[in-house]
Amino acid sequence: GQSFRKEYSQLGILRGKLPTNISMTIASATLLEHILDNICSELQLSKNLAIVRLTNACPNVALSVRTMQHSDESKADLCFLIPPGATSPDDIPMTLIYCNQRKTTEECVDRIRDWAAKQGINVSCIAFYHALIGQVRK
Hints:
- The protein is mainly alpha-helical.
- It folds into two domains: 1-56, no CATH class; 57-138, no CATH class.
- Helix content is 25%, strand content 0%.
- The protein contains three helices and no strands.
- The longest helix is centred in the C-terminal third of the chain and has 17 residues, at 102-118.
């Protein structure tokens, strides 16, 4: 859609210069029907194009929301992530934590690593991911 990235609207120009037998793949995690229609129009895609829709349902992923009991600065509400008695990375359930700011993400990881280290756990299993990490980590 036009509200996402203006540069994408120029793909129609590129599409027009390519032979008609060249395939094009459009992927999106959240492509609404009216936006798909707009994209098809902008890129002058054939009316008989193949649309593949896959679910993003992940039965092995659960959402958990917790009320904070401690100050934000302490990050103590995250200590449950390192279970009592954990001694290795295998004892820590795979967990994703979403933060609104990169700085908060890094602060959370630092604190969780502190707790893991106190239990003798190799902290390399605890990492953050955000837009400014290097290509090697990505």
